[in-house]
Write a structure and sequence with these properties.
4 helices, 82 residues, mainly alpha
């Protein structure tokens, strides 16, 4: 499973509660109401636990965590830097 697929699956299992709910990969998770600030913390815990990375406070910004695409790019950059 790729990072992208794992992130998408995590978001679907934890934040999309309707069977017909779907998100576009570039869709803002915050602006669309898929996640709130608590959801962002859950996503960070998933990333840190699953991939052994540390998300610094300064990295908790929409540019890194506001869509499936952005999270995937951010995660890939963190893993590459490790």
């Amino acid at each position: 499973m790729t990072y992208y697929s794992a992130i998408r699956e995590f978001i679907a299992e934890n934040f999309l509660f309707r069977a017909d709910a779907a998100i576009d990969d570039s869709q803002s998770l915050l602006e669309s109401g898929v996640m709130d600030s608590t959801g962002v913390l859950e996503l960070i815990a998933f990333l840190e636990t699953t991939y052994g990375i540390t998300v610094a406070d300064s990295e908790i910004v929409p540019a890194n965590l506001d869509s499936v695409e952005r999270v995937s790019v951010y995660l890939a950059s963190k893993l590459k830097a490790a």
